[in-house]
Design a protein that fits this description.
Blueprint lengths: L56 E7 L6 E4 L3 E5 L6 E2 L10 E6 L3 E6 L6 E3 L2 E3 L1 E4 L4 E4 L2 E7 L3
Parallel strand pairs: 3-4
Antiparallel strand pairs: 1-2, 1-11, 3-5, 5-6, 6-9, 7-8, 7-10, 10-11
């Protein structure tokens, strides 16, 4: 069976491409379960993001075990994962130890890049390998939903 995305030959019984990870069969559905007891009706942002210094950004955990937590992004590369060494530590089995990286690039522009996670990284509901972020973008990593804010936007 050949992958329709990258053309890689795969075993006939494979559900996902061994090269790019895309589903090989139309009936494959990958879903992440919701978190019980969550209420997204209260989306107030408690941090004065307009007071961030130039070049800084911030993510707010909107959904997940540590909802309400904020992480300041002020390095050129900020790691995200289940490893306690990660700058953005998300402790849940749906998060890979080394899941993704927030990167500041000249401009300044902020990007999120998946670093080979098992469940993938999503921005505004779309799975991404890497994408540029804008204030208000929702980044989903495992069961966590993070809202991104950048200085000056």
């Amino acid at each position: 069976m050949f992958c329709t995305n990258c053309g890689h030959p795969n075993r006939d019984d494979a559900r996902f491409c061994a090269e790019c990870g895309r589903p090989l069969q139309d009936e494959v559905t990958v879903t992440l379960p919701g978190i019980e007891g969550e209420d997204e009706a209260h989306d107030d942002f408690p941090f004065p993001h307009d007071e961030l210094e130039p070049g800084q950004a911030l993510v707010l955990v909107k959904r997940g075990p540590n909802a309400g937590s904020t992480f300041l992004l002020d390095d050129d590369a900020t790691t995200i994962g289940r490893s306690p060494d990660s700058a953005v530590f998300l402790d849940d089995v749906t998060v890979s130890r080394k899941h993704a990286v927030f990167e500041r690039r000249p401009g300044p522009a902020w990007f999120v890049r998946d670093v080979g996670s098992l469940n993938g990284t999503y921005v505004n509901g779309e799975q991404v390998d890497e994408t540029k972020l804008a204030t208000g973008d929702e980044v989903q990593i495992g069961r966590f939903k993070l809202t991104f804010f950048s200085a000056g936007e």
